[in-house]
Amino acid sequence: MELFNVYPLMDVEPVSAKGSWITDKTGLKYLDLYGGHAVISVGHSHPDYIAKISKQLSRIGFYSNSIQNPSQVELADKLGKMSGLPDYQLFLCNSGAESNEAALKLASYHTGKEGVIAFSDGFHGRTAGVSAVTASTAIKIPSKKPDNVHFAEFNNIEQVKEFFLKEEVGAVILECIQGIGGVNLVTKEFYKELLDLCKKYNALLIADEVQSGFGRTGKFFSFQHLSSEYQPDLISMAKGMGNGFPVGGVLISPEIKPVYGLLGSTFGGNYIACNAVLAVLDIIENESLLENSGAIGDYLLNKVSGLPELKEVRGKGLMIGLEFHNPVADIRKELVRKYQILTGSSSNPNVLRILPSLTVSIEEVDLLLSALQRILKERESNEAVHIS
Hints:
single chain, Aspartate Aminotransferase, domain 1, Aspartate Aminotransferase, domain 2, 2 domains, 16 strands
């Protein structure tokens, strides 16, 4: 049997990992500044993470959601306190796509309206429902073209107003920092006006924090950079929640009441998943990783600003996009081949994404800065020789 070939693969085969470093089958070490799509939040193979999961696995690894699971209650309590949203409710599932599917379903159920506003360059998953609200045409289902999904230009409030006036909108789904779209930041003014419109027209705002949540931006959620007063109705989460263990979840406004059978998941909130997230939360708290994310992110944002060929630097904390004047594919390849540094791409071919573990150090990001300076200086020299 062959694998269903849907991923372009780098020529790297990791066999072990520790902190911000992975080791391949030949013994070569790579600096991981991408974390497997922003998944590795507290570093590879953190001893406290391993210990908590191992201890739980030695007792019981799985049973369905038909029994009492105190780990879910403990997780909800801890997450509520650390996120600053203790009044919200928690639903647990297994991935970011599932989280967004659940959020869209809840919004439609609560408002009685099917219309959804999404945004250009937004990405919310590859399953059937959320692919309809994802801007990329490459992942949409050709036979499924819903007429209830309306795309507005990112940060364009006038287009949003037009849709609210013309359509029955029950939900707006928004990444406050677009990840795959190229690390594009929503403005405070747009965010506040958007929430005002949602309240006016009885629609729910879904904040997609799948990539930006759990401290990646220096605050627990990226929308918390925008306002302490304006909060989304639904918050989808995944990636960094489990530090590699598949976990997803939705934080749900207390105004939305649960009904038996409305949502469900066989594997969601299982013992191992809950303990993986609890370990992540403990490590974030004990090692002050929100502060580290903010400090290292500020350091990196300041240091890269002088790089040649750089058009713009965007991001918060350790969710950073470097936009160059030309495509970055060759730069990424050179970082891997010559300097053993892993970085990310985006739907914008000119954007290099930096998404390291929240435990990353200044010394480690300095390795990236040094490598980029050498690569870009060499490119300048080659170009000068070519012109002459």
